[in-house]
Amino acid sequence: MFVLAPRVHLLDLAGPAQVFGTATDQGHRYDLAYVADTPQVSSAQGLNLQATLDWPPLTRDDLVVVPGWRAPTLARSGRFGRPTLSRIAAHHAAGGMVASVCAGADALGRAGLLDGRRCTTHHDVQDELARRYPRAQVVRDVLYVEDGRVVTSAGIASGIDLALHLVAVRHGPATAARVARQMVVYARRNGEAQQASAMLRHRGHLSDAVHRVQDRIDAQFTETLTLADLAATAGVSERTVTRLFTAAIGQTPLRYQQLLRVERAEHLISQGATVEAAARAVGFSDARMLRRLRGRVTVVPDLRQ
């Protein structure tokens, strides 16, 4: 559900809404709703929007998003009534997640949700946000920050990154990558993270054939996939699929599959699995190959980003 303030930025709203709408088209249902303190909301770009005054019933599985608005200063803009701020706070208190784009972080601050948490906002108002909420830790120069079911993003287009992250958390990075591909955007994760999921890190290209092959590998990386299988998926020859794949992401299909296996194995090991159990879970016949690849495959850079 989106909570709209006067002079809302259209891209702050439309970017995340498009992500969730595209995820719905791919079988993950999101019922989008738009509420405000007035039935008509002016946008910063001059287009008037219709909203409802009545909040739908929410569960802890629902997400409340506050898009940003045109705000030379936070102190005199984006005014929400106390009932709206109380509903935002109550949703979080009930176990739900709240998110903001750009200046929308100020609404979360007014609702008391930034105290003791890491957060971010657009660079033009970062200093003011830090002054207004001294108990918050404002993180600069990142795309978004998640802390205790409160997710804040830097602004404008970073709302798309925030929404893709939330889709990845709920439905897996392969789904987020497919949504990003459908939207023809670069699928990124947290801007402060040194390592992003390989399923997202290697999607910054526009080769439809390679995306189809990646979709298959992402879905079946624990299985044995022959080059002939992948070539058939792309509708090209084995030599061509290798050439296209290497040109697009800088490594062969086999290398990419190994990267996904090792990345997943590292996660399982971090959760307490033995190397042997992790190796079997990701498709290796024994732990010897995993041991050889650990520390080598995981540091493969994506030179095209």
UniProtKB/TrEMBL annotation:
GO molecular-function terms, A-Z: DNA-binding transcription factor activity; sequence-specific DNA binding
PROSITE patterns according to UniProt: HTH_ARAC_FAMILY_2 (PS01124)
InterPro entries, per database record: Class_I_gatase-like, DJ-1/PfpI, Homeodomain-like_sf, HTH_AraC, INH-QAR
Domain HTH araC/xylS-type: 211-305
Alphabetized UniProt keyword annotations: Transcription, Transcription regulation
Keyword tRNA processing among record annotations: no
Database matches in CDD domains: GATase1_AraC_1
One of the Pfam families matching this protein, by short name: HTH_18
The protein's name: AraC family transcriptional regulator with amidase-like domain
